[in-house]
Amino acid sequence: MSTLVSHPISAADRSGIGPRRGRGSSMRTWRWSDRLLLLAAWAAGLTLCAIAAAIVLYMGYRGIQYLSPELIFSRPQASLTQAGSGGFLDPLLGTMLLTVIGVAIAAPLAICSALWIVEYGRPSWLARVVESGIEIVAGTPDIVIAFFGLAIFQLHLLSFASETAEGGGVTGRSFLAAGAMMSLIALPPIFVTVRDGLQTVPSHMREAAFALGKTRIATIRRVLLPGVRSNIATGVTLGVSRIIADTAIVIVLLGSTLRISPQPGGAPVLGVLKGLGSTLTSYIYENSPAGEGGAPQKAYAAAFVLMLFVLALNLVVERISRAQARSSGFVTAVEGIV
Amino acid sequence: MLGAVALFACLCVLAMIALVAQRAWPIFAHNGLSWLGSGGSLKAQIETMLATSAHPPASAFYFRAWPIIYGTLLITALAVLLALPLSVLSAVFIVELAPLRMRRVTVRVVRLLASVPSVVWGLIGILVLVPFFDNHIISPSERTSVEGTVQLTGAGLAPAVLVLAVMITPIMVALTCDALGAVPPAWREGAAALGVNRMRAIRAVTLRAVRPAIVAATVLATARALGEAIVISMVSGSNFFAPRPSDGLTFLFEPLRSLASTIVDYHEGTSAPALSAALYACALLLLFSAFALSVGGYLIKLPMRKYQTRG
Fold it and tell me: Do the Cβ atoms of B227 and A303 come within 8 Å?
């Protein structure tokens, strides 16, 4: 702090001090480096805003230019031209199916883990291990999770979940496999938001429930879970936005078939779950110059729809956390990082 | 019962490490740890792996991954270097400088940027940024100067770094903002009472106090950048070429591959056992670096607990 003390205090400085200073103070007494820093900080903040505005406007422009109702309601066709290759009904349904599977697996797991950590958490070393385990899952790249899924669903033990090739090898690729791995992506944000919510429930609420003779489980069901309902909603929304945004898992575990192709000869619902398909993200990837399709207009249209979903989910998170009495931290709201 | 569910999450991690390591084992068995080094043409090695059938000869397992490891390090380091000043300055802007309405807008912007799907970033990169580089930035003389070794198409190091930097900025801004907000107001008031101006107080007190948080945010962002596969696969030119700094500025436009993008590009080749083992070895390397980085981030945040500030 020596730089602070040795700094001469002038009259002009005194009038312009502090984080909440008056409007009339001047910057003329500032050092050049300070002025530069101020300028740079403003520039950085405005740059971020400009990037976001550019992306939203550009995607909106391209989306309105290329999106049409028949794109949404028609199935992808195998075709060499953009005009004949159909729309993205199947990818839309695929995104929804994967989201449902992923959340159906992740939400109970994450909520139970959070309840156990906060309400029981004994032995404490085990609780710490569980927490860091979830932290590791949160930090694992999605491509690694996708390859883990490939490895685990190629085990013969789990051959029921995907197709078995003629040679006896299991492909390991199906909606079930992709959905299970998606649940790993969605689990950390749900876990973190629910855990933070439980920690803010005042302990006198629990004590009151115990004093009324409720058991622990009854307290959890009647007092705690209703109390953290909005946290669960926030967490699930964050999880959903993770799932619909993920590409690597879809590309690896659903392959590049654009149509939802149920397993031949399977039961109606199970056949779809064991079959292959696509999502909006993999549709964009396949139709961009990076994939095979080379249909950038379709990719733009699908990306526009995807951005609409993402914006809607963002709004939902904001609405919920505003309704919450004590809003959650910035980070939790952005990413759900531990 | 609840405990069993919680344990299940941990078992997943163990199973992940075990399975990925088991699949990667042939590479370690045939190459030892020297597969991390350089030697021969990586492209030829991958093609040999793809060409071999279900029972590859031992020679097919020869694998030297240095070009893609170097590519990963290069892209990650440059992206983090670019994102670091941008995000620290933006965080200072949001917490300390912006008027209230501006602050609300910027916070929303950061949230929006954080939730843009990676494939959308990639799409913009490949359809807007790459043609822009191809048509306007790369000069004909630069094109001819490296003609003999590699073709410049616009996709390469620079667009990949730019897109990746924008992708990891929101997460760094968010973490830095949280730390800045947790600096005790008394410290700032103390600086003000000593008569320094606003910017001096930010530099000498606030930013100094959150230094561990900035480092932790950088580490987290590095982990995110290391694992990013889709964007890099789309805009990096997907070429087993290691950009040569000796080419001067042209080096920024040379195509390359990272570990994660190689995995995405070749995921359909996993039926060839040798290639599958090589890809799992890359995945294992990514898994371990992500793990090491998250441990590192935790250790860096430890001193912040002392001041009761959240990291």
Answer: no
